[in-house]
Every structure is written in C-alpha cells, then in structure tokens.
Amino acid sequence: MKKKSPCPFINFLEIEEVERKDGTARLVMPYRDELRNPTGYVHGGAIATLMDAAMAVALVSLLGHGEFATAKMEIRFRSPTKGKTLIGESKIESNRGSFYFGKATVREEGGKVVAEAQASFSAPQQG
C-alpha cells in the first residue's frame, strides 16, 4: 500500500512509500515532464531526493520517529533515465552512537540501476 509523506517537498515530487520494515524501505517516483533537466533526462536532484527519502523512511522504521537529519550523502549516478517510473530501495546498515549509516539504490521499473548512494544521519538521543 502506498503512503503519502508528511514532507510537502516529497509529495510535490509525487514520491510515494510502498514499504517500510526493519530498517528497509521502498519508494516510487512516477515520471513526469517536470522532473526533466534541459537534456530530457530525469534531473539528478530528483533522483538524489528519492534516495535520501528512501533512507529516511528506512531509519524511521528503526527509530519510530523522524527526529534526525542527513549529515552526509555520496551519490554515484550510473545511467541516465527518462520516461520511466523510478524505484528507490534502501537499508540502514549500522550505527555508531547517534549516527546511522545507510545505502540506497534507484532503479527504473525494468530493473536498470540509475544511481546508488550511501549516507549518514545524525539522530540525537531521545529523552
């Protein structure tokens, strides 16, 4: 079941949550013309946002809240894409203190890898 985000920017991009469970998440971003860069491919910023959002949802599935911030994200763009719905899948792999570390991959509907990212998140201790 797809879920809307509490974040207006994510909803503006029409990114929808499909699944979240045990530090993993799956989100989809349908293609639309507004996502194109001047050469007709999906803008890298939209792809980066999909990966950041996927990792954030995965982290919420572990912490039970959204009180954290992306500290650093490194992206590797693998292949340009146009005209396809994109799927972002992520996993939080570890943590050290209040820092959590995750990875995400964006693929076209057909499975072609578009981009990969790894990121760290700062989550101050609750309480």
Topology (elements, then pairings):
Layout: H1 8-12, E1 16-21, E2 24-29, H2 44-63, E3 69-77, E4 86-96, E5 99-108, E6 113-122
Antiparallel strand pairs: 1-2, 2-4, 3-6, 4-5, 5-6
Commentary on this structure:
There is one protein chain. Strand 1 and strand 2 (24-29) form a beta hairpin. The protein has a single domain, classed as Hotdog Thioesterase (Thiol Ester Dehydrase, Chain A), CATH 3.10.129.10. It has helices at 8-12, 44-63, and strands spanning 16-21, 24-29, 69-77, 86-96, 99-108, 113-122. The protein has 127 residues and is of the alpha+beta class. The protein has a 6-stranded antiparallel β-sheet with strand order 1-2-4-5-6-3, covered by helices on one side. Helix content is 20%, strand content 41%. It is built from 2 helices and 6 strands, in the order αββαββββ. The radius of gyration is 14 Å and the shape is globular.
Helix content: 10-25%
Instruction: Please report the distance between the alpha carbons of the first and last residues.
Output: 32 Å
List the uncertain runs: none
Task: Write the H/E string, N to C.
Answer: HEEHEEEE
Please write the CATH class name.
Alpha Beta
Count of strand segments: 6
The overall pLDDT, averaged over residues, is 94
CATH topology call:
Thiol Ester Dehydrase, Chain A
Which second-level CATH architecture applies?
Roll
Q: What's the CATH H-level homologous superfamily?
A: Hotdog Thioesterase
Q: What proportion strand?
A: 35-45%
Q: What is the count of distinct domains?
A: 1
> Major beta sheet, specifics?
6 strands, antiparallel
Number of DSSP helices?
A: 2
